[in-house]
Amino acid sequence: MARKNARAVNGILLLDKPLEVSSNGILQRVRWLFQAQKAGHTGALDPMASGLLPICFGEATKFSQFLLDTDKTYLVTANFGIRTSTSDIEGEVISEKPVQFSQAALEQALTAFRGDILQVPTMFSALKYQGQPLYRYARQGITVPREARPISIFRFELLKFSGSTADFIVHCSKGTYIRTLIDDLGEALGCGAHVGALHRTQVGPFSAAQMVTPPQLDALAEQCHSSGDFSDMDALLLPLDAGIADMPKLALTEQEQYRLQHGQNCQLAAGDIAAVKLHGPDDNFFGIGQVQQGVLSSRRLLNTAALQ
């Protein structure tokens, strides 16, 4: 997209990512449709996965980390009896065993994967070892040491069981690898398993009911591109602070806002707060701050000039 055509777009779009396309690929497509200067997604989905992919435009990208760090919910189909190299349907088969467990045994096995548990990350992840992403080693057939990491599984519920396949809903903390969860479940049941389908339905405060599909965007963009009026597309965007709606809010005076926006701290009669939404005297959101020992400082501030 030529820079001369780019617009200063700000806000969050909740996209229903389709199958068989990378998160970055669909991101660039959506950015082009909006003719936006800057955009980024908040937590990639594999090409074989679909569902909720929040896309942050412009100034909203400053707060994308908070969505990366939040909990998520997935609908997942597990195929039992076959273990694959990638723990999903796209990998090579590495073992096959008969499926001999009952639904009661499956329900019992799930209990070990609920709550606070440790999980060894998959080799097919972006985590780094000696400066290189794990997936690069995996593609060369190399396995490197990985330490188990603490995660939380808030909900792991069986929705449907049909002998060799099962549908689940999984609500989990950041850092959870669903393919590893299903692989570990298959090992616990003695037959192996891999992910057959994966659909994300929730990211932090956002739900699937709010999603927009690529065909909907394409149809709307055709009209907007021909007319040069993007107001209908921009109306799909959520506010800059929609992803941090539950964060504590702090109302500041005009002088306090000025100090923070000019690199200065403020004295504040308040306890320590790791992250707080900053609002000016007109209730305008202008960034995120933190309070430590009675001192308010800024963490990420909006470029207010970019919003005009």
3D architecture notes:
The protein is of the alpha+beta class and 308 residues long. It has helices spanning 23-34, 64-68, 103-110, 134-139, 178-188, 214-227, 231-234, 254-261; strands at residues 11-17, 39-41, 49-57, 72-80, 82-84, 93-96, 115-119, 128-129, 132-133, 149-161, 165-172, 193-203, 206-207, 249-251, 266-267, 273-279, 285-292, 295-301. A hairpin with a 5-residue loop joins strand 16 and strand 17.
Strands, helices and their partners?
Elements (H helix, E strand, L loop, with lengths): L10 E7 L5 H12 L4 E3 L7 E9 L6 H5 L3 E9 L1 E3 L8 E4 L6 H8 L4 E5 L8 E2 L2 E2 H6 L9 E13 L3 E8 L5 H11 L4 E11 L2 E2 L6 H14 L3 H4 L14 E3 L2 H8 L4 E2 L5 E7 L5 E8 L2 E7 L7
Parallel strand pairs: 3-12, 14-16
Antiparallel strand pairs: 1-3, 2-3, 4-11, 4-12, 5-6, 7-10, 8-9, 10-11, 12-13, 15-18, 16-17, 17-18
